Structures are given as structure tokens and as C-alpha cells.
UniProtKB/TrEMBL annotation, chain B:
Pfam families: PaaB. This is 1,2-phenylacetyl-CoA epoxidase subunit B. Its EC number is 1.14.13.149. The keyword Metal-binding does not apply.
Amino acid sequence: MATAALEPAVDRAALLEFLLRIGDNALILGHRVSEWCGHSPALEEDIALANTALDLIGQTQLWLGLAGEVEGKGRSADDLAYLRDGYDFRNILLVERPNGDFGKTLMRQFLFDAWHYLLLKALKGLTEKRIAEIAEKAFKEVSYHLDRSRDLVIRLGDGTAESHRRMQEALDDLWPYTGEMFAADAVDAALVEAGVIPEPQSLKAGWDEIVAEALTEGTLKKPADGYMHKGGRRGVHTEHLGFILSEMQFLQRAYPGATW
Amino acid sequence: MSSEWPLWEVFIRGQHGLNHRHVGSLHAPDAEMAINNARDVYTRRNEGVSIWVVRSSEITASAPSEKGPLFDPSNSKVYRHPTFFDIPDEVGHM
């Protein structure tokens, strides 16, 4: 990948925080989705989910690679993925939710994809070239992720009574984790000011539209916006993240520097 | 679950200018999903620029028992091969 210089005026600490947030979202969701490998209800779905997981892990390498560069302490993407502890992770809580059944995994994917799509679309056109380049590449992959998860949410929502019930339950269960996607703090404010990221709230209208359209078509009822769980973006996670990390990081922790 | 889905034959065009080639089959509930599944199953290594899918049940095949009458007669028609022309060197490999 061509390496343009980073914009010198941008606050390095804020930039690092943002890169960890977007990179950790991809990493943790990628790992979650990879848990389906060999367990999906059909061979075709198994491969499709594995592809999605691999896309996300590929994006993680780019985001965390840049994060390591910005941090300037010589840490690689692998170091950041495998050698940080839970409170150092910055992913939103939605992506660490357990897979549940196939429908719930797809609902989580759809809610995330719709936002991820809009975020990357906005990042592509902003000033920080290194970020725009990664966003450009990831956007194509995520456009397909969204097409697929939206399609399946509609099909399963508007499918049998059983599939409809499961999708509605998944939606109700995951909805309180969607608010964190649009939360903003001082880090976001600094980067919005510098023209590096879009205002998080500015993605909400587009997300509402994509989600509402799919839910209507899938005969699913959008839950009311009530209490929204937050914390992942500042390192306060649910108990689920620890289990993910213990599995994901085991090898590097037990055999430091192991390669194959 | 997948056994309830119909079978689809998948054809991929590897490059512009080439024909679609049969690459295999898969299960899917309808054509749109068959295309998606084909993308995920058969084009993971950058194999394609275009996908066709068709319900396997829509394909009419010649019967193996008809093999003799259908194909044997052309065995002895050597004059149908364009091997009796002199090809100029400039044409190169054909």
C-alpha cells in the first residue's frame, strides 16, 4: 500500500484512539463470525460467513498496522491484536455480543454493517489520506457484507413463523447495543474538527433509513429507543470480551512469538 | 436445511472475452441467493468477472444410452476437421 505521510496537524493520541476503535471493531467481530466456521446451517453459508470474517481480519491488519505506526512504539498489528488486555480494547459492545443462533449472528451483522458501510463511505472522502485509502478498500468488502446481511435479515424476518420469531428476538436483544455506534466524546470531537472523521451523529439518519427499510420489508418491528449500553469505546467491556481474548490470544500468550 | 433448497449449476466467466464455464453446483433457495452463494463459493480467489446460475432441474441432458447414435457417427468424419489447410507461418499458433 502506498504510504502517504500522515497529516501533521492531527492530534496523534486522538488518531491512535480512533484507529484502535475501528480496528478493534473489525477484529472482534471478525473473530466472532469466524466462530461459525464449520458450524453454519449450510455449506454455502459457512463459506460466506468465513469470507466475511476474513475480510474483517484483513481490515484489522490495516487499521491496527496504522495504529502501531501512529503510536510510534514499534508495535505491529499482531502485537496490538494479541498482546493487549481487555481494558485496552476499544470495540463497541455490539460486536462482542455472543453469536446466539444463526439469525442473531446475522442481525448483529446487519446492524453493524449498515453503520460500518456509512462510516467507511464518509471516511473515503475525508482529508487523512492513509485512512481514506484503507476505507476505500474496506468499503467494497463491506458493501457486499451489507447486501448479504440485509438480504438474509429480510428473508428470515419474512420467512416462517419460527424464523420471524427468532429474528424479532435477536433484534430486541441487540437493539440496546446500537446506540454506542453514534456516541461521541472528546476524541471524536478533536478528529471531527480536524476533518479526519465524520460527526458520529451525522451517520444516524442514514443508518435509521437502511435499518427501517429492511425491517419493514422483513415484517420486523423496530424496538423503541430506550437505555443504550455503552463502554466498549473507552475500554469498559462486558464479560464476553475476556472469553474471546482468552481464545484468540492463547497461542501468543503461551508461546510468545510463535509463527507458522 | 440445504437439502430442502434446489440445486443450481454455476457458470463463471473468468475474463472478459472468454465464455462462461461450468464450475460446479450449489444449493440456494432462489436465483438471487444462488448468485451470492456462487460469489462466495466459487470466486474467492479472484476467478471471475461474471456469474450465471441456472436451476439444475432446468438443464436437459442427453441420455447416456443414446451415446452410440448421437456421437459415434462423427468418429469417421475426419474431413470435418480443418486439418487439410496450409496455415501461413504469420498466423502463428491457432
